[in-house]
Amino acid sequence: MSLYIAVTTPVRLGLDLRGGTQIVLETRSTPDTEAGPEATDRTLEVLRGRIDALGVAEPTLVRSGERRIIVELPGVQDPKQAAEVLGRTAQLTFHPVLGTADGPDDTARPLPKRPKERVLPDEDGTPLRLGGAQLTGEQVKEAEALIDQQGTGGWLVTVDFAGAGTTGWSRLTGAAACHPAGDPQRRVAIVLDGKVISSPQVDPSVTCGKGIPGGSTQITGSFAADEARELALLVNGGALPVPVETVEQRTVGATLGAEAITASAWAAVIGTALTAVFLTVVYRLLGALATTALACYGLVSYAALAALGATLTLPGLAGFVLAIGMAVDANVLVFERAREEYAARRRPTPRSALSAGFRKALSAITDSNVTTLIAAALLFFLASGPVKGFGVTLAVGVLASMFSALVITRVLAEYAAATPLVRRRPRLSGLATTGAVRDRITRRDPQLMRRPRRWLAGSAVLLVLASAGLVVRGVELGVEFTGGRLIAYATEGPADADRVRASLADAGFPHTVVQVSGDSGLTVRAGTLTDTEADEVTAAVREAADGADKVRDELIGPSLGQELRQGALIALAVALGAQLVYLAARFRRQWGTSAVAALAHDVVILVGVFAWLGKPVDGTFVAALLTVIGYSVNDSVVLFDRLRELVRASPKAPLPALANRAILQTLPRTVNTGMGAAFILTALAVLGGSSLTDFALALLIGLAVGTYSSVFVATPVALELDGRRSRGRR
Given pLDDT bands bounded at 50, 70 and 90, which one contains residue 23? Predict the structure, then answer.
């Protein structure tokens, strides 16, 4: 079934992978209309008609929340026209002209004399006093952009009225025709969104009181071809029920998306191949069978994403590759536990040891995957955009990895373990050997928890160094958290950042932030720029950097930036709180608290390292941070699961001694799982390109720090808390 779905149902790619433009609009309330869900739905339908008229292939328009509309336009690399068309309210009205506002009787009082009157400049800048609207765009049947064959040869827009609009047009023009030629009151003003776009004189042949019959007119105004077509499109699409504001706009070049897919595919292939070789070397036949199960995992994950209709984004693609490394964990847990069972039995067989390994590793597998699912759920419900896609991919990957480890691997491994060849030569299974890591531990028998406070002192030093980075360098928030505009360019060679800054300053943009990444990458970050100003920035960059080609353009409104920043902090706080609640329920309260303390330790160090490196903290970093939390808590869960088992077996034994045994018994799993994930992450960091490098770097740092903290932070804190509890009882 999975193979059939994977072959017949393609996964929908996000714009960051196939290229295009995403625009997020937010509806605004007016004195007459509340911008609620109903008004937003009506606005969405009007926008859908406008987008269809633009001729964009496979556009997507969906409502997000009560007041936001997400518009995706695949293949659109210059979004200026689309943004202009989508952002216009397109309130079309027709008004009688009551005179000019600078006449002899209006010199001292240029404001309207009656409430319904208004003063607007005409095409030449002359202020006109307009009466109330007699007709609106709702009474227009059709508008069409045409070349003026009888006049100057320019463009005009014909307007045909329908129903009451026909008689209304005759009445309006008939009233204007009662004034002499040349009188301003013989004009009719056509207003679009509060601007007079045309105010023609009624022809002298029109009779007073009868007006123009037929319900048709022409809007002239020195239009260019694009302007005329856009006006006709807006009139035909109808007016928006409420105004909209662009709060986010992203454009990704098709080349960048294709490069990301290629880079991630190579990272997946090479990372998976290295992981497969590693598993086969360490666990022999069972490692090779686990590799087969991993291939099935990849197929099941892809088919699940296709069946769910999920959109695969760039962080989601990274999550898909990353989950391959996470899928190794369940297999390693089972195999290491089976090795222990094989070594502990008098007359062991690979099959009996394997069955015991699956049974005793189940609780650790369940707890570690549940904590990762908590992080994925938080990403889905609290994050937005591509990061939300990462949460979906991560959740699917976790569920598929459990299926591959507990079902596919088990069926294949138990079948292989029952074969005569493996029974005669149990070392082929990989279970009859204890492994290099366990052998070294057995020979040395280190007492790691003899003085746990020393580890806490070392961790305190690391926290001070990381916190110093936050104070000295500060956290560089990404544009999606601060608001503003970020434009990325690909250059033919290394760009000179100082030269680009000078060129931008000469162009009138002295406060832009210029960063060079790699040998062919350049980013420019500024406050909120209009599309025209963004074009000027691009022109200045191309003067200073050879062959600069714009590959990404992001515009984030300040209100959305603040909202995303608050959402990230809420997601982080809820993640820590949710992990604490779950771990406290599954283990002792002191152990859950110590695991969360280790998570907070990892967060501070990772943010501090990024501060020292000058790396941006953006939505992708938040996704990496929450994934690191899941990684770290996995290690703590496995360790405390073993400690709980040892405490039940020896309730009177000293807890530090039991904790030391738990660390040493689970250390082979920790090392081997970390190696499997490191292969994938290193491949992403090296081959993933600039768009994935920071993401993979954050995960690599988090992997190392999380492995350290689960042993040398969580365990010492648990011992300290338990010791205080025991002293309090005495």
Answer: confident
**Pairing assessment for the beta strands 118-121 and 135-136 based on DSSP bridges:** unpaired
Residue 112 has pLDDT above 50, yes or no: no
Q: Cα separation of 136 and 464, whole Å?
A: 66
Q: What is the mean pLDDT of residues 316-344?
A: 79
**C-alpha–C-alpha distance, residues 567 and 228, integer Å:** 42
Q: Report whether 414 contacts 355 (CB < 8 A).
A: yes
Span 406-429, average pLDDT: 89
Is the pLDDT at 106 greater than 60? The verdict is: no
Q: Are the beta carbons of 576 and 596 closer than 8 angstroms?
A: yes
Q: 0.90 exceeded by the pTM?
A: no
Q: How far apart are CA 608 and CA 625, in angstroms?
A: 12
Torsions phi, psi for 379 (to 5 deg): -60, -40
Task: Quickly state the pLDDT bin for 113 (edges 50, 70, 90).
Answer: very low
Locus of tokens 């080609």? 549
Sign of torsion over alpha carbons 275, 280, 283, 287: positive
Question: What is the per-residue pLDDT for 185?
Answer: 92
pLDDT > 90? residue 221: no
Q: Which residues of 358-394 are buried (b: 16+ CB within 10 A; e: fewer)?
A: bebbebbbbbbbebbbbbbbbbbebbbbbbbbbbbbb
What sign does the CA torsion over 201, 207, 208, 212 have? negative
**Burial profile 651-690: b = 16 or more Cβ within 10 angstroms, e = fewer:** eeeebbebbbbbbbbbbbbbbbbbbbbbbbbbbbbbbbbb
Distance CA 173, CA 159 (A): 14
Integer angstrom CA distances of residue 55 from 49, 73, 524: 10, 10, 31
Structure tokens at 548: 């600069």
Mean pLDDT across 236-243: 80
Beta bridge partners of 63: 69
Q: Judge whether 325 and 275 are in contact, CB under 8 Å.
A: yes
